[in-house]
Amino acid sequence: MSLKFIVMTCEGREHYLNSIKGIPNLLVSYDNFTDAGKFTSTAFKNSQQAWDMAGESATVQMEDDIILCDFFYDKITKAIAERPNDVIQFYSSRKKDLTVGSRYEYGGNFLAHLCYYLPKGMAKEIYKYSFEYEDACDYGQHRSPNDLVTQTYFKKNKIKYWLHCPNLVNHRIGKSKIDPRRSSKRQSLSFVSGS
Q: What is the C-alpha separation between 116 and 19, in angstroms, rounded?
C-alpha cells in the first residue's frame, strides 16, 4: 500500500518537526499563505494543501505540535494494516478512551487533526469537498474550520471512524497557533510514551 505521511507546519514552529523527522518519506505542508479568505487564519488553506498533497494515496495527516509514542512508525503502520479501509484517529482526550478503549465512533463526533489516517482516495474527496464547505460557510470571523470539514464530510457520507487506544500521539503543551484562546493543556488521556 502506498502511504503518505504529511505534517502541517508554519513559521515559528519548524523546530517541532525535529522530533518527528524519523518518519520515512515525511512530507511537509508549509503554511506560507497570505490570504485566509473568509477566515482569520490561513491554517485552513494549509489543511487543503495537505489533503491535496495526498492525492489518491492513503495518508496519515498530522499537525506539527504532536509528541510521538515510542516506535511510532511500527505501531501506526501495524494499526493501519489491520484496518486499511477505515478512517483511524490516533489522538483523543475523551473519558471513554480509558473506560472503553479502542472503538468505532460516528463521523459526526470527529475532532482534532493531530494525527489521523485516511484510506486511499479519501483525502482527495475531502479536498474537493472543502471548497464546497468553504463556499457555503457563513462564519464571518471564524478562524479555521479544519476539523469541521472532516467532521461534516464523514457525517454527510455516514462514515464511522476507528479511535485507536492507547493514542499513538499526544498534544504538545502550548498555545494554539489557530486560536490562542484555546487551552494550552489539551492532552490525551490514554497516551503513554512507551505505549
A: 18
The torsion angle over the Cα atoms of residues 97, 93, 9 and 45, rounded to 10 degrees, is 100
The whole-angstrom separation of Cα 187 and Cα 37 is 30
Note whether 75 and 164 are within 8 A (CB): no
Strands 58-63 and 115-118: antiparallel
Give the dihedral of Cα atoms 97, 195, 89, 162; nearest 10 deg: -70
Q: pLDDT tens digits for the chain (195 residues)?
A: 589 999 999 888 888 898 898 899 899 999 988 887 777 778 889 999 999 999 999 999 999 999 999 999 999 999 999 999 999 999 998 999 999 999 999 999 998 899 999 999 999 999 999 999 888 776 554 566 888 899 999 999 999 999 999 999 999 865 555 444 444 456 787 888 764
